[in-house]
Amino acid sequence: MVVLCGAGFLIFGRNNNAGVAQIASVAKQNLQETVLATGQVVSGTDLDLSFQVGGIATRVFVKEGDKVSAGQTLATLNSASAQASLTTAQGSLAEAKANYEKLLAGATPQDIKVTQSSVDSAKQDLANAYIGSITTLNTAYISIYNAYSTTVSIQNAYFLSTDQPGGKVSDAKNEINSNMQNVKNYLAAAQSGKPSDIESAVLNTITALGNVFNNLGIVRQQADEGVYYSKITAADKASLDTQKTAVNTALTSVTTLRQSIASLKIDLQKAEDQLNSKIAPPTQADIDASRAQVLSAQGQVDSAQANLNNLILRAPGDGTITQVNIKIGEQATATTPVITLQDVGNLHAEADVSEANIASLQVGQSIDYTFDAFGPDSHFQGQVLTINPASTVVSGVVNYKIKGSLENIPDIKPGMTANMTILVAKKDNVLAVPSTAVINKNNGQYVRVIDDAKKMTYHEVKVQTGLQADGGLVEILSGLKDGQQVISYIKP
Fold it and tell me: What is the pLDDT of residues 24-71, one digit of tens each?
C-alpha cells in the first residue's frame, strides 16, 4: 500500500521518496482515432499540352477559363506543306484501289476487243511478210541465176584452159550452180505459203547468197591474175562487179526479210500474250501484289495524316483551360507546353502520410476537411480513394501518397491547401482512461487504482487495452470499472 494525501494532486510517500500524483476517473466515452495530413487540391485532369512538332502558330481557339470538350481543337500550326503531302498520298491510294478493283473485275469486253484487234493486225502483218517474201526470194534467185550466167559466159570466153585460174573459175561456177539449184528447190517449196517452208527458204537463201558472193569474188580475182589481167575486157570485169553488187543487195534484202519476220513473230506473240492475260482471271500473286500496293498507299496516307495531326492541338478530355502560352504568329517548339488543361469539376485531394501512420489507413475511411482558403470553421466531408503502395522520401522521411474525394464543395480550386483529418477507428460508450495511466511492466499492462483517497492508498490492477484514441485516451477492455479513480501521472 502507498499512503496518499492532498486534493486534486495528492502528495504521497513511498520508499522514502515523495511525489505529486495526478488522478483521473474511469468513465465511458466516445473514442476515435484519427490521422492528420496536409495536402493540396488536385485536378483529376491536369495536363500540360504541347505540339509534337515545331512550327508557326496560325490559330489559337481558346483562352484561359474556357471549358472544352474531348477532341476539341485548341490551336493549329502552319499546315500547307503537310496538307499537300496528304492530298498526294490520298491520290496514290485512290489510284492503287482503282487498279486493285480493276484487276479483280478483269478486262472489259472493249479491252478484249481492242487487244484482239492487235492480235489480228499482228497476224496479218506476219502473213503479208510471208507473202511478200516470195518476191524477195525470187529476186534473190534471179540474182544468183544472173551471176551463174555471167560466170559461165566469162569461163567460156577466157578460161578454157586447165591452168590454175581456169580450175578456180570452174570450181566457183560449179559452187554457184549448186547454190542456185538449192535456192530454186527451197523457193519451189516456199510457193506453198507454209510459214516453216518460207522461213527455211529464207535461211538457206541467205547462206546460198553468201556462198555465191564469195565465189563471184574468186572469179573476179582470177580475172586480174597473170595473162587474164589484159586478156579479159574491162566490160566483162565490170559485169562481174555488177553481179557481185546485185548478189550483195539480194543478201541484204533477204537478211532484212528474215529479221522482219522474226520481229513480226515477236509482236504477234506479245499481242497474243496480252490477249491471254486479259482473258485469264487474275492470279493470286497478282492479287497479292495489287493488295500490297493498296496497303503501301494507305500507309503513306496514314503517315501524311499523322504529320498533319501533329500540327493540330486537340483537347484529350473534357476540362477547363487554365493557361495559354502561345499566340498567333509565334514559333512553337516541339514538346514545349503551350496550353494547360484541367478538369476543375473533377477534383481530389492529395497528401503524403508518413510510414508511422500509413498502416492505419484504408480505402473508404472518412475524411474531415478544412481549407486555408475557407477558414478553420468550415468543414467538408470526403473519403480515402487510393493509397499508393510505392513510397516517396521527403526530407528523409518515408511517405506514401493518398488521394481523398472532394464532393460538392463550392468555390474550391486546384492548388488550395487541404487539411485532412482521417478517421481510422471509432468506438462509442466504452471505458477509457488517459494513456498515461497505463504502465507497461512484466510483459503486461497495469493501472494504479486508488483504494481510499483519505487513507491515501492505491493498488495496481492488470488491464487489457483496446483503441488508442485521440486526446491521449485509451480504451479499457477489462480490469477496471466505470467510476473508479486511477493515477494518471506521478511526478517524482
Answer: 999 999 998 899 899 898 887 778 899 999 999 999 989 998 889 999
Strand ranges (DSSP E) for 305-416? 312-314, 319-324, 331-332, 339-342, 347-354, 366-371, 375-394, 397-405
Cell of residue 178, nine digits: 549448186
CB atoms within 10 A of CB 190: 24
Separation CA 390–CA 46 (nearest Å) = 21
Q: What three-state secondary structure class fits 348?
A: strand
**Residue 315: half-sphere exposure toward Cβ, Cα within 13 Å:** 25
For the beta carbon of residue 117, count every other beta carbon within 10 angstroms: 12
* Chain segment 322-372, per-residue pLDDT in tens: 899 999 989 999 999 989 988 777 888 999 898 888 988 999 889 989 999
Can you tell me the distance from the alpha carbon of 91 to that of 78, in angstroms, rounded to the nearest whole number? Answer: 22
Cα–Cα nearest to 177, from 139, 150, 197: 150
Beta bridge partners of 19: 12
Q: For residue 441, give every residue at least 6 positions away whose Cβ sits within 8 Å of its Cβ, in sequence order, or none.
A: none
